[in-house]
Amino acid sequence: MHHYVKKALYFGVPTLSLCLAALTLQAGEPSLIKVGFNGDIRSTEPGVNRDENSDAFIMHIVEGLVAYREDASVGPMLAKDVTISDDGLTYTFTLREGVKFQNGKPLTAEDVKWTWQHYLDPKTQWRCLPEFDGRGVSKILDISVPEPLKVVFRIDKPNGVLLATMSRPDCGGSGIVHPDSVAADGTWIAPIGTGPFTLGQWKQGQYVELNRFKDYTPRAEAKPDGFTGNKQAFVDRVRFVVIPDAASAKAALLSGGVDVLPDVTAMDEAELKNVPGMQVRTSPVMTLGGLLFQTRDPLLGDVRIRRAVALSLDYSQMVATLSNGLSTVNNSIIPTTSAYYDATAHTGYPYDLDEARRLLKAAGYHGQPIKLIVNKRYPQMFDMGVLSQAMLQAVGVNIVLETLEWGAQLERYQSGNFQMMAFSYSPRFDAALSYESVTGNKDKEPRKVWDNPKALVLLREAQSESVAPKRQALFDQLHTLMLADVPMVMIYNGTSIGVVKAGIEGYRSWPISKPRLWGVSLAATSK
Amino acid sequence: MFRFILHRLGMAVPTLLLISVMVFALIRFIPGDPALLMLGDMADAQSLAQMRSSLGLDHSVVTQYLIWIKSVLSGDLGFSISTRQAVLPLLLERFSVSATIVLVAVALATLIAVPVGLFAAWKQNSAMDLGLVAGATLLLSIPSFWLGLLLLYAFGIKLGWLPVVGYVMFADDPLKAITYLVLPIVTLTLVEFGAIARMARASTIEVLRLDYIAHARAKGLSEGAVLWRHALRNAFAPTWTLVGLILGNLLGGIAVLETVFTLPGVGRLMVDSIFARDYPVLQGCLLLITCIYVLVNLCVDLLYPLFDPRVKL
């Protein structure tokens, strides 16, 4: 007996000590992942005073009823299931049981109703209010709570993009927050959501942190799936470090100042993929890059000239140059990653210089200058303009580049005051939303490039329709019509390129491009 | 001297008022709408109008100016359009970062460059002089961002001695703060060293040609005494003017270095506010820079008699 006690002490004490030391070390040094951000966040309020970085950040703290999956389709998040009435006017969301807010209180349907009332109050200045107050496809008439975990939305018109719009990151994913997030006078305090991370320290201009929400209730799926699925956090803290300069960001990655750069250029990708200890993660994204025409311009009002431009561009060469070979040509406004990108959408403009010259001659074009607006904030737009100018010279189209600061270009876009413009639309995750961004009445919305009544009718049908095959047929018609009208030349969708240091596991780029730090672990802590 | 100070400060009031009008008007002449930049390419007309109204941009420019100047006179520079932060504390916080780097770097550059310039002038046309002039010219010619990136690469990435990005407040952790400040301070010191050394050398050469220096040498004074006691004081006056100009210029923000080293200084704040058309922050930054110029020039003028006995205030 004495011998066994001695043996147990001999082996047990050191083992126990090691375990305790490991635990102490783990407790003393919380795991941290540092992610490079090219700018600070603007606020912590979902969908209010936001930008790309603010959206990416807040999506770690709040969750909506539904969310985008990895393939940009919409799936339930806080909702267990969603049922839509036959007339398409009533949406019933059944909430998951056991979900807790970050202040420990349980999620109820009343919280959902309160959050939505908060968003629908014009005083909140929620970015996506126009999509739900009748200015968009439909208006939310009523939100009711028949049961503690059931919430019912009634709308005035069928809306095929309601769930997709609710899920938009720029709307903060319509994230549900606890009423304690807002002060009694209606001012925003801080987000108390249901997401896998809570708000940490924010040193403005330097960094903003997330802390792991220990009582997070993940969905039952085995893995994360876009903004939904199992979103369990594996690290204690995530710090988004503000590094505006791309060269400094790269230096930070190489020196260990950051562990993840979610968005690097194609040129940096070519360099970093050869650096030992770096892993590159790429994914096609849903940005829409191309050339816009002002169809009311005396010159470009002639569809033959617009078509000649479209036929004169060597898209394969252009896209290979713009993306360092990472992206593919896409002449459709529907992104290649969309479920609605089919064989019809794949049809594009042929490279036909003879036909282009014939069209220009028929239109009476004889080298009049055409101003093409570009900017240097987004190098891909500038390069797109320069390459287009060079390629169009081959058929005698005289493109004059006008380089503007981004803010000035955006103003010209909004007012429709341009002849041609190299432009990149932010991602739209539903094909109808993509068409909506370019189609409209120019008298009311000068920024819209495609003012075709037939297209508008087709678009309205696609926006109201929920049945996928019927929507597909409408999108196919729209694409064919757009190729004929040439109000713009879509060239490609971008590629999201993330670079992570070896030892970071589970980080992936995806079509929605935003970084996601749930499901990501450090090699040491994940084992 | 007190009257001189009062007179100079009195003169600054109309300057600041004029600058405030110019700044306010010029910013609004820049194409680009802050509301549009906030809403992006999805903005519809009604949302845009609502956003403009909430930011107070729907008033006439004159009304906006009057509202702003009234607030400024009561010590309130307004709120940032982008982050909704109060502008004055934001400016002071960011200015402390820029000022720490600039004051230390310019002091170091002056302390090193003046003796070097003096020595080069003393050894004029020697190999040592040529080497020093070439070195100073080289440092003057290197763009600060490039030098910064080279130092980042060498000491941050290759040697791993210093952190590459980030900033720690001195009050939070002095030792750590120093490690973050070393590279920007060294970069700025090297860049400014070139200009100050060349000026110190040129003005010393001028002074060394004067009769009183020949007289001092004829009296049998040592070269050290001639240089330090007689040449330096007179030669330093023009260099001091240059140091004042450099200080005024740099205290207004070292945007490029702040961007390269990711420092939350006033220069980066100004650049960010230009891109975001954050009018209140931009106006605050420009007003701050104007005040700094006025104060630095006043300080330089007040200290001038210390170096040049011919100057009386």
From TrEMBL, chain A:
Which segment of the chain is annotated as a signal peptide?
1-27
Keyword Transport listed: yes
**Classification via PROSITE patterns:** SBP_BACTERIAL_5
Which SUPFAM superfamilies does the protein's record reference?
Answer: Periplasmic binding protein-like II
Q: Which InterPro entries match?
A: Peptide/Ni-bd, SBP_5, SBP_5_CS, SBP_5_dom
Task: Mention one GO biological process in which this protein takes part, according to its record.
Answer: protein transport
What is the protein name given in its UniProt record?
A: ABC transporter substrate-binding protein
Species the sequence originates in:
Pseudomonas veronii
Automatic annotation (TrEMBL), chain B:
Q: Where is the signal peptide?
A: none
An individual GO BP term = transmembrane transport
List the subcellular locations: Cell membrane
Respond yes or no to whether keyword Transmembrane helix is given for this record: yes
Q: Which UniProt keywords apply?
A: Cell membrane, Membrane, Transmembrane, Transmembrane helix, Transport
- Protein name according to UniProt: ABC transporter permease
Residue ranges crossing the lipid bilayer per the database entry? 12-30, 97-120, 132-157, 177-200, 239-261, 281-304
The reply to whether Metal-binding figures as a keyword in the UniProt entry is: no
Q: What is the lineage of its organism?
A: Bacteria, Pseudomonadati, Pseudomonadota, Gammaproteobacteria, Pseudomonadales
Q: Where is the ABC transmembrane type-1 domain?
A: 95-304
The UniProt entry's sequence similarity note says: Belongs to the binding-protein-dependent transport system permease family. OppBC subfamily.
Indicate how the chain sits in the lipid bilayer. Multi-pass membrane protein
What is the source species? Pseudomonas veronii
Q: A GO CC term?
A: plasma membrane
